[in-house]
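Onboarding guide, step 5: your first structure request.
Type a short instruction followed by the sequence, for example:

Predict the 3D structure of this protein.
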Amino acid sequence: MWNATEAVFSRSSSFRECSEDDEEEALRWAALERLPTYSRVRRGILRGAAGDCSEVDVARLSSGDRTALIDRLLVDSGDAEHFFRRIRQRFDAMTLLLGPPSSGKTTLLLALAGRLGNNLQALALEGKQTNLVVEYILKKVAKYNITLGEAALKEYGMFTETLGKQQAVVSKSELKEREKRRKGEKLVIELRSYLSPNILTGTNGKELQKGMRIPGWWRWYYWADPISWTLYGLLTSQFGDVDAPMNLSDGIHSVSIKLFLKHHFGFRHEFLGVVAVMVVGFCIIFAVSIDWYIGMERIVLSTHTAAFAVHFGTLAWCMKHGFRQQPRKIRSCRPDGFLLCFVGELRIIPRFSPYSSLLLYFRCEIGIRFCVDYKSSVLLILLCTTVSCCSTSREHLMPLEKTLASLAGEVQELKSKREAVSRELEAAKDQGLEPKSRVIEWMESIQQLETETGSLNEELSRLKRRGACSSLSANSSSSEQLIRKAEEEVATAGELKRNGEFRKVGFDEKLLKVGLSDETLVPVEALEQLRRHATDGCVSIVGVHGMGLAGKTALLRSLHDDFLKHDTDYDVVIYLEVRGEVMDVQSSLCKELSFPCPETPIERRDLLFGVLSKSNFALLLDDLWEPLNCELVGVPIPDPSTSKIIVASRLEDVCSGMGAQKTIKVEGLAEKQAWDLFKSTLWGRQPNDEDMIIIYRAKAMVFKCGGLAAALVTTAREMKDKKTSTEWKEKGHIMRNAPHELPGMEKEVLGPLKRSYDRLPGDLQKCASCFALQAEGRPISKDQLMELWMGEGIIADFENICDAMSRASHLLQELTAASSIKRLDDETFEMHPMVRAMILWVANGCEEGKNKWYVRVREWVTQTPDAGVWNVAERIALSGNVIEALPDNPDCPKLVYLDLGSNQRLKPIPDGFFDRMPCLRVLNLQHVAIEKIPENIGHLVLLEYLSLCQTRIQTLPSSIRKLANLKHLILRSTNSLRDVAGGIMSGLEKLQWLHMMDSYSGWSTGEPGEMGASLGELEGLGDLRALGITIATVDALRRLCRSRMLAKRTHWLQIEACKGLTSFRIPSSFSLGKAMLNLIELRLHELDKLKEVVFSESAAALSNLKRLRLSDLRSAKLTWRGSCLQNLEELEIEGCNGIDAALIRLKDEGAMDGSQTITILPNLKRIKLKRMQRLQSLSDGDREFAFPRLETMEVEDCPKLRKLSLVAPELKEIRCEVRWWRQLDWEDDRTKCFDKLFKAL
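The system replies with structure tokens like these:
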């Protein structure tokens, strides 16, 4: 194809042979040779058809010249290589680019010319993003012993063949999409990274100067330049010990790389240690010197200094590791080839800044030029010095100027918008409206933005005014900080523009519902929750519930005012206290909307629906007692994105009935907020210097108020004129026992609370009154409440304990929903102090029947009330005091409830104490240190509930059999009781609940000669529903299990002192699992002969068992053989010294599937270990026990237990002794998991 016989692009043969005959052509060629390479390769002498010669620009040939040129070139010749060799003889650096369309030819030429567009990037073959197609060719240079031009010619064919199948040049948008799908490190290489190799293209080893050839007067700079030392170290460390031959550029001679470096450059491998020291030393010297230069005022090391330190450190690291990863690529190349590759790799460093890259580039050039031509390096030294002294770089300041210009435009737009809003504000003020706070804040933000913009412009001017000797690194750091700050301000301006659209700029202050003095009455946390839900675009109806006076009304009013003060999208905002029926609500809405109220409900509904359905509305309905039918009223179902309905009620069920998607429980003011309100009302805003005793009594009053704002304000107003401690003590006594006697308390506090109490059904009122008879502010367990309610007859006719507990749970849920009590957790509840005070006030007849309920619980009372109180009282609660004596024969004709429990100093009960209590139904003597019950207890013929648990009585009086109406007899933990006469139990025909666990154990089986109460008597109690019993013989235990009636009724079982019992299997022994289906607690106590307690698998696995207690089993070990006790919640092990290496031993290991973590009690919540002297581990060897629901662990007197080898993700606390906690092995990984759970016993 190509004409190989005629040299179109070179001088004609006639010129070379007969140049003297054509002087004009010779002069033209001589002039072309003197041109720079860039211009020389674009010009040539073209001979025409007639043989005349003319100088042409090859880039601007006419169509005719091009046609003629191609006709002369395209001839039938297959010797393309010969053609290229001839071309190379004329232009050493010329490269012919061949390839299919869109393969990257134009892009390559544009890139080499520095004219590649910013909107284009290229893809390398390895899938990495680069800035230049040139990168591919440069990476291939080292493979061949040729110059860059020859490498380009050979490699570009492979390059275009590959890229031709793809899209070599793509847009930035497409690159971003590819980057999302492609993982891998991006290698971004700047164009300037390849300028240095291009300078050296075409040089060969003969042109490089050895270090010793530099004149003596110039060598000092060679050794003072860190780049020289860097090159020395890089080349010598990589090739100084390589004996492999290398070809020189003439293609004939060869020499070993080691000798070439030594004789040509003066690089000796034995000098490498000194080089390494010098490179590191230059880093240190450069950093210290620059820091001193900049630090005349003790300025910290600049970013620029750190950048150069990192750079030199990187090069020092490269001496050891940098190029050894690709030895073939570098060691096979000629000197100029691997030097080019080195320079290319050198430029792949982190970009500190454009200025740093430029300066570092010049420094690299200086170092390289020392090896090439020391004379040409003088110019680069001067240029580097000039750049170093340049104080401000346009490359730094141009982005800042551009950002500030954008910011100025944004500020100007905001100023125009502010002027328009100001005019609207003036018009609103003329109409008597107050500006909305959001509008004021928006205008102030614009003013602040103007100030910040001015400061940024001043900083820019200051940078421009800096002199030529200013620190570049300081300028760079300052400009980058200013750019970041300017960008932040631009973002702020954009946000202000988005928030600058206001529907209304003012509001009518007369429509506000909350005055400035009422802001402290709003519960802060609940208000924040309500605001979040009110602005949630996915919520249309929000419910607010809580006890009376808790702050629901204040919440809704505060939210109403927020909607008015701040700019919102609501066209209509209505706050309405619901009173009466649907018609009353319709009339109130029409009035709020300033519409005439139609006569009929249907017309009102249609009017309201038509108005509200076309508006964005916020409807706040307060004090609802039952769900409101919005359809009948005329209120459309709100669109959550535009409208809201917010309801407030004391009943949680009302919120649910209204369809609330979000509910908020309001519990009054927080402790700090309540104290602040009380102080501000009592002493004002100024600090007070009151007596500390008065402060203490004031805080007691605040606690009594329980966060109710009305109670706090009422109490504080009453105490304003009280200055002495005595006055505060007197008022404190009234506040504690009779708060209704304080002025304003009935009207402002107790009266509103009574509205909720009056709406409760009769049974729920009785349930709530039982709370009022307990200690104030102390939680009450569900079990205790169940017993109280059974004693009061609220829970009756139950089948078993589970049935009674279910009914108790339902009642507690009803009380909680009515906001009468508060749930602390699943098992405990408490009543608000003011609700308790209200119930006692109501129970006493609201002053009409004073002392009908005499309640002094846990108040350190030492004496019982006087005779007058005994005579009129219906209920007396004196538990938890220090009473020592009781009246001999009190006259109590109306008394139905008497609680003397937990008076541990009370010992004897007078013999005539129960003589005149004909109506008494509930008697509580638990935890009283009495040893004897008077015989006259038999006079209490109406008594239904008697609790003697934890007393010291030794015998039951025979008169108890006369208590024909007794339904509940509690003798739990009366372990001193040794005598129960036969026939006593059979006389209690209505007995439903008998609890004698850890009590009398001498039950007879009915055999001849046996004394005392028998199991047969219990079998005769037809109404018995729940039985707790203690068994001391194997025969009695067998008899109990065989009795279907007793086994079914047994809920609490204690087995103790059974001499013939050596092994006990749970649940198979004595058929416990099959017989006692309702057993909820099992205790094994003082079984000296017992050797083993086995947890075995069984079909009947005691599914209702909740508590297991093992105590004083001196020789027994625990063995696990199956999956029983799946619902066990509490495990207590005390004084079982037969347990040593492992708490529980595993048997049938094959069934465990080799697992190292085994779950044996999945529902266990509490475990207690006490007096376990030999216990060493909670696991069995390498197998750990998992308790997924364990919450509390208690350890006491277990000295050998050093590790907590268990898995308990839900564990919340470990109650133990401090000494034991400190001796734990905290190096153990499993033990470390529990280091934050300590709680002292």
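Each response can be followed by summary notes, for example: The chain has a mean pLDDT of 77.
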